[in-house]
Amino acid sequence: MPQTAAIFRELRPTLALAFPIIVGQVGQMMMGITDSVMIGQVGKVPLAASAFANGVCNLIFIVGMGLLLPVAVLAARAHGAKESRECAEYLRHGMATAVAIGGGTLLILGFLSSQLHHFGQPAEVVGEVNPYFLLLTASLIPAFLHQVLKQFSEAIGHPWAAMNILLGCVGLNVFLNWVLIYGNLGAPALGLAGAGWATLAARTTAVALLWWWLARQPAVRKEWPERWRRTLSWTRLREMMRIGIPVGSQWLFEAGAFSAAAFMMGWIGTVPLAAHQIALSCAAFTFMFPLGLSAAVSVRLSKSLGAGRLDVLRPIGFGALAAGLVVMSCFGLIFAFGGGLLARGFTPEADVVALATKLLVVAAVFQIFDGAQVIGAGALRGLTDVKIPTLITFIAYWIFALPAGYLLAFKTPVGAVGVWMGLAAGLGSAAVFLAWRFHHKTRPGSL
């Protein structure tokens, strides 16, 4: 194991980079949480409908984010090697890829919008979900573009602007929710659809502001593309896809497992689906902390490889893993002992609160596993090791977690809580094997 002194020495710059990333990630997640809180005040059917719509849309969104993640890895490596032109090219190719993925997403989800009644959800949920679903779909293109700009900004050492812009747009989302969901300031009360319009407006504003800021910064000028309409390089696109496709697959397996869990909750009923949305919103919020650490450790490892500093790889990775375990253990205690209070903040419905409280007790356990697995995956991604981690995540979530969750939920008296117990088991197995993989890859002489 790396020496303790080296771990602490490398942890400080990792945390310094991670802090604005984490705040920005939390801000992004707050858009979804504020939607859930404000929609929950309208009723449990709109809340369940938002859970269903987000379960489908977020699955596609997360896969797209995985496909775009090479921008951060490759731009960081080029920045570490002081190759400014390569940084600019990875940004340009990333933006073009985001437009292509966004267009494909519109086609896929546009078709699915007419097929939602085939997912086995409660009739009242399906009857209310479609306008919100279509607005979420439309907001994915600006979300993809913003993700590329944000990753680029972080990779070249400018994470604070992305953080501040995103926080401002969270405030905009809350304000527009208040206006459009409830019909304030003379606007019509659109209910669930109002939350969709607010998300679309906030995401569009975020990408426009971040583009404007980056394009005007003298410190970014060397890494900013001089010409955007040049022919794209298939060599660079293939390089990006060699990383992006496995990472997108990893995130598909994990996000797909959570989407499948939402569908199983819907098979049980409206109350379990609404409770699932509350517990998932809380867990997704705390997940942003290790996710930010994962992004920071990936960038730092990529830069270190680009600069030829192999001696710091293990201290960077294991330091981030230790920090993530401490943070997620603290959140686990909050979920275990304050779950009821958290659930009541989303809805006054007593039956939904009672079930969500039980789910949060299970979430208290898998918080630790979730933090470890995402940091482990991020560390391996920084080493461009993505194929074996993809296999690990597939086995953990689809061979282990989902079958276990189904059996516990539908074949034992545990019921809806069993779905989350299965997810916890899958996260735990992924955490162990990804951490072992990083240990194996960074042994002396392995790179």
Provide the fold topology.
Elements: H1 4-40, H2 44-68, H3 70-80, H4 84-112, H5 123-138, H6 140-155, H7 159-182, H8 192-216, H9 234-268, H10 270-307, H11 313-344, H12 350-382, H13 387-411, H14 417-441
- The helix tally amounts to 14
The string of secondary-structure elements, in order, is HHHHHHHHHHHHHH
- Give the termini distance in whole angstroms: 16 Å
Low-confidence stretches: none
Question: What proportion strand?
Answer: under 5%
Report the average pLDDT across residues: 87
Helix percent reads over 70%
Category from helices, strands and their pairing: mainly alpha
Q: How many domains? A: 1
Output the radius of gyration: 21 Å
Main sheet summary: none
SS elements, strand count: 0
Net shape: globular
How would you portray this structure in words?
By secondary structure, this protein is an all-alpha fold. The protein has one domain (4-441). Helix content is 83%, strand content 0%. It is built from 14 helices and no strands. It has helices at 4-40, 44-68, 70-80, 84-112, 123-138, 140-155, 159-182, 192-216, 234-268, 270-307, 313-344, 350-382, 387-411, 417-441. The two termini are 16 Å apart. The mean pLDDT is 87.
